[in-house]
Amino acid sequence: MKRQYIIANWKSNKTEVETRSWFAKISNNVNKEIIICPAFTVLSWAKKLIDQYSLPFKLGAQNISPFDEGSYTGEINGRQIQEFAQYVIIGHSERRRYFHEDEEILEKKVKMALSAGLIPIFCVEDSKASIPGGVTIVAYEPTLAIGTGNPDTPQNANATAKDIKDKSPGVRYVLYGGSVTAKNVNEFTRLPNLDGVLVGGASLNPSEFFEIIINA
Ligand code: PGA
What does the alpha-carbon distance between residue 139 and residue 103 come to, in Å, rounded to a whole number? Predict the structure, then answer.
């Protein structure tokens, strides 16, 4: 059976209390790599809850400083993230669009992640995007599919994943992201070039996310 990644991108959602109730409701018993990416403010709390409920989940951050430690007010660097998480999402289209992150900065972020021992989950909008060296996990997320309820077609996502792997041989896993739900997840994960999903909105509800894990 191929290895699959199921990633929850909580974006700018959930307080401590809400994080606790999410973890209290979810449990997991399947053999898939489940990665929860909460906001920085609840990352350490999520780590405690994973231990408390003995969940086989890993954690990821949603961003990383392009700099090492030092005088960079407001930034969280790789060594700080690494105390809590094993993964980090880099290059999400919301970061590119609202925070003007370009290829140069994304490459720096990937370097910082790798030097801190974190695994970058590098997001691209299509197969033309450049992928920094050292990236092994890519999430293909077409902008028009994010948060719209209009996912890409599984066939197109699969073809794009194949293009990405052909173009960047270092990339071992390509995930699909954009309006994934418990209903449609298997249409994507059953295709040969897709190795999992990155889920935004539908990951906020523990029962739906649990169903996504089961159905994937
Ligand atoms: P969505 O978001 O599942 O809410 O469409 C996916 C993402 O932006 O990672």
Answer: 16
Query: Which residue's CA lies nearest to atom 2 of ligand 1?
Result: 200
Q: What's the CA-to-centroid distance between 35 and ligand 1, angstroms?
A: 14
Separation between Cα atoms, residue 28 and residue 30, nearest integer Å: 6
Average the pLDDT over each of 18-27, 40-49, 151-160, 182-191 and give the range with the smallest value.
18-27
92 belongs to the catalytic site? yes
User: What's the pTM?
Assistant: 0.93
Ligand 1 atom closest to the Cα of residue 148 is: 5
What is the per-residue pLDDT across 49-61, written as a single tens digit (0 to 9) for each? 999 988 889 999 9
**Index of the ligand 1 atom closest to the CA of residue 94:** 8
